[in-house]
Design a protein that fits this description.
This protein has 332 residues and is α/β, with parallel strands linked by helices. 55% of the residues lie in helices and 11% in strands. It has helices at 2-21, 24-57, 72-83, 95-107, 130-141, 164-192, 213-233, 255-258, 276-289, 299-310, 312-321; strands at residues 63-66, 87-92, 118-121, 146-149, 195-202, 238-245, 293-296. It has a seven-stranded parallel sheet, sandwiched between helices. It starts with a helix and ends in an 11-residue tail after the last helix.
């Protein structure tokens, strides 16, 4: 027993003696590194808590418009913002689906701390109906604080196989529709000198890949529109944010399971794309921090965005190398 106690006493003393014999600078570094790591981890943890809290409270009593509330992402956003105390205006193509969503929201929330959603029919593929829809949106509360534009129509096919009508349909849904809605509500925001526009866009608004010619063109167009608009409305206190993601999917591997081409490598770090919950959390965070541009994507697509600008010849060569016409079929 005495031998063990002596060992227990002498080991720390010997270690301390060795530390005293070491270079003081090295000793200080050895002792400080763990402290710095712990403090850094604690800082990011607290920052995450604060950011999460602010994102949940930033919509309280705010008038928030969801341009496609009945989509997967729209439903999750509607639930998050409704519980956060937002005055929601839910838009969509189907009145029945909007009513069903509104019933689900009101039935699962405390009416004393939430507001009943207001519903507006909105169909970007019917451009003639947009003026009336814009009036309905403005009439709900008389003003707007936040507009989240999450409509999207996509198609996959070789460019020569797409009809001009399909090209126009994609441009209406992905560009002309959002642009028309924003132009209709901007005067109200500018007069109040406040507001936040959030475009939920595809990463193909910054990076085009084969067999997405019409889709990528529409996403590039709406990205450029909002980039220009951001500078134009800044003096009026209006924030403009764009969120570029790979693709929105359910929790199960639906689209990813069928992707077996070269382009599957673009999603290798996130095989199931971005879940609606992840995208909704990013939207809520963006409402709080008002970041101008957010990219939700694995490392490889982000690298490709920069490669397109700095190494265009290499980028185009890689694009052409991944083309396989035999595995392409028209899908919308």
């Amino acid at each position: 027993m005495s031998v063990e106690m002596e060992a227990n006493v002498t080991v720390p003393e010997s270690l301390w003696e060795k530390l005293q014999e070491m270079d003081p600078t090295w000793t200080t570094t050895v002792l400080l590194v763990p402290c710095v790591v712990v403090l850094t981890a604690g800082f990011f943890y607290i920052y995450g808590l604060v950011t999460g809290f602010l994102s949940k409270t930033c919509v309280r009593n705010k008038v928030v418009v969801l341009s496609d509330a009945t989509s997967k992402l729209g439903k999750v956003c509607a639930s998050v913002f409704h519980k956060g105390g937002a005055r929601l205006i839910l838009c969509g193509k189907s009145w029945d689906k909007l009513e069903e969503l509104a019933e689900d929201l009101t039935g699962s929330s405390d009416p004393s701390v939430t507001f009943p959603p207001k519903l507006v029919l909105l169909d970007f593929s019917d451009m003639l109906s947009l003026p009336e829809a814009i009036v309905d949106v403005l009439d709900c509360y008389g003003c707007l604080d936040v507009i989240i534009l999450n409509n999207s129509l996509k198609v996959k096919a070789p460019a020569q196989n797409l009809s001009l009508e399909m090209d126009k349909l994609l441009m209406d849904n992905n560009y002309f529709g959002p642009a028309t809605l924003v132009k209709g509500v901007l005067p109200s925001m500018m007069s109040r000198r406040t507001g936040h526009l959030i475009l939920v866009n595809s990463i193909q608004g910054k990076l085009a890949v084969p067999f997405r010619s019409a889709y990528a063109a529409s996403k590039h167009a709406v990205q450029a529109f909002f980039d220009c608009l951001r500078a134009e409305v800044e003096e009026f206190g209006i924030s403009v944010s764009t969120i570029n993601h790979t693709f929105i999917s359910a929790s199960d591997a639906t689209e990813a399971s069928t992707r077996k081409s070269f382009w599957s490598w673009f999603f290798i770090m996130r095989p199931h794309g971005v879940s609606p919950g992840e995208a909704a959390a990013e939207i809520a965070k963006t409402l709080g921090n008002k970041r101008k541009e957010v990219v939700i994507a694995p490392t490889l697509p982000k690298v490709a965005v920069y490669a397109r600008s700095f190494f265009p010849n290499l980028f185009f060569a890689l694009m052409a190398a991944g083309v396989n016409h035999a595995n392409v079929s028209v899908a919308s």
